[in-house]
Every structure is written in structure tokens, then in C-alpha cells.
Amino acid sequence: MWVAFHEVIEHGVDGYLVEPGDVKTAAKYAIELLSRPDRGREIGQLARVSAKKKFCANDVIPMYENYYEQVLASAYSVKAAR
After folding, report:
1. Mean pLDDT in runs of 10 for the chain (82 residues)?
2. What are the CA-CA distances from residue 63 to residues 14, 39, 57, 59 (Å)?
3. What would the DSSP string read from start to end of 14-80?
4. Neighbours of 43 (CB within 10 A)
5. How many Cα atoms sit within 13 Å of 29 on the Cβ side?
6. Model pLDDT, residue 1
7. Phi and psi (nearest 5°) for 10?
């Protein structure tokens, strides 16, 4: 599951990734963000921009529609070949 977060978060740019159970590293990043509010705001702004680019419905929905159309076309061609 940890690997999937790399698609959403760019470590050190718009968030921090920490291995599950690595409390020491998570605490280090939390302290950094709490002691540098400007950095927290910057990361938050970059995360928002990144999320809007990667997950905007106007972009994502057509990709899914295209994918499903390809799946259906493939299924119909397999069925027709039988």
C-alpha cells in the first residue's frame, strides 16, 4: 500500500512519505512542519496544485471512459470470435 502513495505524494515536495511503523522519521517531519509554518503552507499549496492536476474530474473521467470503452471493445471482439 505504501508504494501507491508515490503516485499522490512527491516526497519532500508536496508531502513526506514514511515507512509504516517508522515513528522516529514521522516525528522528525512533523516537528519540521510544526516549527516552520511557512514550509507547511508551501507543501500544502504544492499538494493542492498537484492533486488538482492529477485528479481533476475533467481530466480523470475521460481517461476512465476511454479505458472502459477499450475494455468493452475487447470483450465484444473476443465474444464475436467465438
Report:
1. 70 91 96 94 92 83 90 81 69
2. 24, 34, 10, 7
3. TB----TT-HHHHHHHHHHHHH-HHHHHHHHHHHHHHHHHHH-HHHHHHHHHHHHHHHHHHHHHHHH
4. 20
5. 14
6. 44
7. -100, 110
